[in-house]
Amino acid sequence: LASNELQHTPTVIDIGGVKIGGEEIVVMAGPCAIENEKDFVDTAISVKNSGAKILRGGAFKPRSSPYAFQGLEEDGLKIMVAGREATGLKMVTEVVDTRDVELVNKYTDIFQIGARNMQNFRLLSEVGMTRKPVLLKRGLSATIEEWLMAAEYIIAEGNHEVILCERGIRTFETITRNTLDLSAIPAIKDVSHLPVVVDPSHATGNWKYVPALAKGAIATGADGLIIEVHPNPPCALCDGPQSLRPERFKSLMDELRLVAQAV
Ligand code: PEP
Ligand code: MN
């Protein structure tokens, strides 16, 4: 169902007028984790003014360490809704457990399935039973085939609105957090009708490399980007080193418009 053998035209996902997979590049932006209402709403207003269409933020944080900040859970979702109401942006947030799908579904416009859960098949089926779009991140060491099969689990339940998200894969390299697989974009476009977005923040782990890879992603055919933005990265509770300050995000958006025009 994810393959273009049966469906020849690209899937365009329409989230209340924001179309992913169509003509326009859609940018999702916001902090890694929702920390407090003031910072979140300020960041939301700022990324909206810079041209983002979708707000990102984590309320359930799957951290590598069980002792790290795990997210504000439902309080975080409520803050996210405040950000959406203040800006009119749509929202995407991660769900990490089948038990939370119903709760997250009450708030979000798009479910995010994180890299660590790409092969959590029960979770995939559960979001497949909803009628909300799903941003499916590529697993840390998943092949493109495995990733498309994960998408298949969602679509098989009747939910056709899957957005694939390349966020870098594990390689022997250590200078960057992960290795962004830009070749996955044209390779997927070759075999699937699903839209593909790129997450240069988790791919690099370093804000300095984010603009270059964001531009590379547009140039190689991505339908959109998801970028971490934080008002004060050194104090971020999660992923500060890879977060852009709002001003840098704004200038990146201007650069991206030029790249999008050129391709
Ligand atoms: C995130 O988007 O904050 C996140 C945890 O990403 P990933 O699942 O790609 O590591
Ligand atoms: Mn993050």
Summarize the structure in words.
- The model has no long low-confidence stretch (mean pLDDT 97).
- The radius of gyration is 17 Å and the shape is globular.
- It has one domain: Aldolase class I (TIM Barrel, Alpha-Beta Barrel), CATH 3.20.20.70.
- Helix 1 packs parallel to helix 9, helix 4 crosses helix 5 and helix 8 packs parallel to helix 9.
- The protein is of the alpha/beta class.
- It has nine helices and ten strands.
- The structure holds phosphoenolpyruvate (PEP) and manganese (II) ion.
- Manganese (II) ion binds next to loops.
- The site of phosphoenolpyruvate has 9 residues, from loops.
Overall helicity: 25-40%
Number of strands: 10
Output the strand order for the largest sheet.
3-4-5-6-7-8-9-10
Write the H/E string, N to C. Answer: EEEHEHEHEHEHEHEHHEH
Q: Which molecules are bound besides the chains?
A: phosphoenolpyruvate, manganese (II) ion
Mean pLDDT across all amino acids:
97
Question: What would CATH call the class?
Answer: Alpha Beta
